[in-house]
Design a protein that fits this description.
The chain is an alpha/beta fold. The protein has helices at residues 23-32, 49-56, 68-71, 80-102, 113-125, 145-157, 167-173, 211-221, 245-257, 273-278, 295-302, 313-318, 333-345, 347-361, 366-381, and strands at residues 11-16, 39-44, 60-63, 107-110, 130-134, 161-164, 179-181, 199-202, 233-236, 264-268, 282-284, 307-310, 326-328. It contains 15 helices and 13 strands. Residues 198-358 form the Glycosyl transferase family domain.
């Protein structure tokens, strides 16, 4: 990529080990392309879809490929595997530091658990400020305990500042102050009224996202529905990581077991999520565990759709129950079924919630979020 010779803006490196188009990576894609006061340099640990998407948007990208021992580590290895991992981390820190030094970065910001470690060490090695940006709640059952203990230690020692995507995420760090809360950006699309009672769930296929909860709730809520006008459940997403493959396969078996396989559509990975949400009657977030922010929740709100979300983590901060959405206990398919049935039966309620949700989502406009993020990073550079 051509780099402006006279660009006096500070270069800030954004590090993540993954190049898959998942939550934190999609955040980087949106914000770095819109920055005006900072020259973003995204440093990835692998080649992949995020790399290509960033380049298409004119964002500067470097790839420092992680050794297999680092990329595949789950926190449960023993003996020789642990030694190999340690050597891999040391090599990754050195290689990353060389890139950061050569690019004369003013600060490093890390955006994944592995990047918090090797990126934080690399930033310290070249003596620039390190800002850890947290995109998920620490200590959930989705993260191995050994990794959580290590991560908390890393986050309390390496960064000079911490950014979190919600108050819940900030609290999960425990005892670290100050933490700046910056949400995730959303575009507000033109409002398109839709006469549909179809339910949509968007997100990578994973037990953490709770598609199984959504299928059970849908089957319960629509048990008596039949015919061409019966509600459908549309599941948009794919298993991005090998550990989720068995779970994804089990979802189809679950739909068949519950007798709704003919009304559940597995769409696979969907690039244009906004269109899928715009065509939905009801958007569901079914994670049984606290999610850091809830990007799909705020995107559905921006589209003016009634949203039902788990009352935990970031989504519980986004939605005021009964005002701009409905909240249900996490993992409770009975409560979720009741909420779905309520919206299917009362379209006027859905319209009211959707209209209010659209107004609420405006506080997460792209320009405002990017401005908050740039200000936090520039403070760290001073």
């Amino acid at each position: 990529m051509d780099r402006p010779v006279n660009d006096s803006r500070p270069v800030v490196a954004f590090l993540t080990h993954s190049a898959q188009l998942s939550g934190a990576e999609l955040f980087l894609l949106r914000v770095t392309a819109a920055m005006r006061r900072i020259r973003p340099l995204v440093v990835l640990g692998e080649h992949g879809p995020l790399e290509h998407a960033l380049v298409e948007r004119g964002v500067d990208v470097e790839v420092v490929e992680l050794p297999t021992t680092v990329r595949s580590h789950t926190g449960q290895s023993r003996g020789g595997a642990t030694i190999g991992k340690s050597l891999g981390v040391v090599a990754t820190v050195r290689r990353t530091a060389r890139v950061l030094r050569a690019r004369r970065v003013a600060a490093v910001t890390t955006h994944s658990a592995k990047a918090h470690l090797y990126g934080g060490l690399a930033g310290r090695l070249i003596r620039v400020p390190v800002v850890a940006h947290l995109h998920g709640v620490l200590g959930t059952a989705d993260v191995h305990r050994a990794n959580t203990v290590l991560l908390r230690t890393v986050l309390r020692t390496l960064p000079s500042a911490v950014i979190a995507n919600s108050r819940c995420t900030a609290r999960s760090l425990g005892g670290r102050a100050p933490v700046t809360v910056v949400g995730c950006p959303v575009s507000i699309p033109p409002h398109t009224p839709v006469a549909s009672s179809d339910v949509v769930v968007v997100g990578r296929l994973s037990a953490f996202k709770g598609q199984d909860v959504a299928i059970r709730a849908f089957a319960r809520a629509t048990a008596r529905a039949a015919g061409p006008t019966a509600p459908r459940l549309r599941i948009a997403g794919a298993a991005l990581f090998p550990r989720d493959a068995a779970y994804a396969d089990g979802l189809r078996a679950l739909a068949d077991q519950l007798g709704v396989a003919d009304r559940v559509d597995f769409l696979g990975h969907v690039t244009d999520v906004s269109t899928e949400l715009a065509n939905a009657g009801i958007a569901v977030h079914a994670s049984p565990l606290p999610e850091g922010f809830g990007q799909v929740v705020v995107e559905a709100m921006a589209a003016g759709r009634p949203v039902i979300a788990s009352a935990a983590g970031g989504p519980a901060e986004l939605i005021e129950d009964g005002v701009d959405g409905l909240l249900v206990p996490p993992g409770d398919d009975v409560a979720l079924a009741a909420a779905i049935g309520r919206l299917v039966d009362d379209t006027a309620l859905g319209d009211r919630l959707g209209a209010a949700a659209r107004v609420s989502a405006r506080r997460f406009g792209l320009d405002g979020i990017v401005g908050e993020l740039e200000e936090a990073l520039l403070r760290a550079c001073r």
